[in-house]
Amino acid sequence: MVCKHQGEFECPSSALTSIAPKIGFASDPLRVWVRGAETDSGQRDAVTSAEHDVIKALAGAKRRLNCTH
Hints:
Layout: H1 2-5, H2 12-19, H3 27-40, H4 49-68
């Protein structure tokens, strides 16, 4: 919904501030969710959710290996 209507507002934060209460969210958590969706869809250059999960799993495996040796 935010992505669809961003063009109707002066800036992305205006869209979030207007739309968030209509769907029962505060604007900041909605902003975080929108950025994550943009990243996962390739519209924003950052670590995707899938990449984050892999990094987290590798860090856990490293921790376990360090504890056993």
